[in-house]
Amino acid sequence: MTPPPTPDDAKAAGFPIVGIGASAGGLAAFAAFFSGMPAEADPGMAFVLVQHLAPDHNSLLTELLQRTTRMKVVEVTDGMPVHINCVYIIPPNRDMAFFERCPALAGAHSGTRPPPAN
User: Fold this and answer.
1) How far is it, in rounded angstroms, from Cα 66 to Cα 82?
2) CB 72, CB 87: distance < 8 Å
3) Could you tell me which residues are beta bridge partners of residue 72?
4) How many CB atoms sit inside 10 A of residue 91's CB?
5) Does residue 25 form part of some domain?
6) CA distances, 2 to each of 50, 57, 96 (Å)
7) pLDDT by residue for the chain (118 residues), tens digit each?
8) Which residue, 54, 58, 56, 47, is CA-closest to 21?
9) Would 11 be classed as within a structural domain?
10) Residue 95 pairs with which residues in a beta bridge?
11) What is the 3-state secondary structure (H, E, C) of the chain?
12) How many domains does one find in the chain?
């Protein structure tokens, strides 16, 4: 098992990547979080949002959150580079892991129930 990253690891990489999770009703919490950040300064980190989304429904989370922050908000694509002062959102019906600071997406799940969290 790999030890968790330290502040020195984040400094060596240039900036921290912060993961935030929420249930299906998490939009209000995400919006409050980003609306409450200082508007005059960049946070100096990237944010990755993981929300339980309906597997068969296109999400509007990216567009809705873009209204709450001046940071760029994008839906994750497999292997995309992560940039400082940006917000990344997991796509519906996908699993996501990070390898060497890049997101790796796993395939869609069958059925309507999400996979169990480990």
Assistant:
1) 17
2) yes
3) 86
4) 17
5) yes
6) 21, 35, 17
7) 545 545 554 455 689 999 999 987 889 999 999 999 988 889 999 999 998 877 777 788 899 999 999 999 999 999 999 999 999 999 988 899 998 899 999 986 554 445 555 5
8) 47
9) no
10) 106
11) CCCCCCHHHHHHHCCCEEEEEECCCCHHHHHHHHHCCCCCCCCCCEEEEEECCCCCCCCCHHHHHHCCCCCEEEECCCCCCCCCCEEEECCCCCEEEEECCEEEEECCCCCCCCCCCC
12) 1
> pTM surpassing 0.85?
no
Ramachandran angles phi, psi of 80, nearest 5°:
-65, 150
**Paired tokens of 109:** 């799940």
Q: Is residue 1 part of a domain?
A: no
Q: The domain containing residue 30 runs over which residues?
A: 17-36+44-105
Structure token pair of residue 51: 């929300």
pLDDT of residue 58: 76
Q: Spell out where 35-84 has E strands.
A: 46-51, 72-75
* Assigned domain for 101 exists: yes
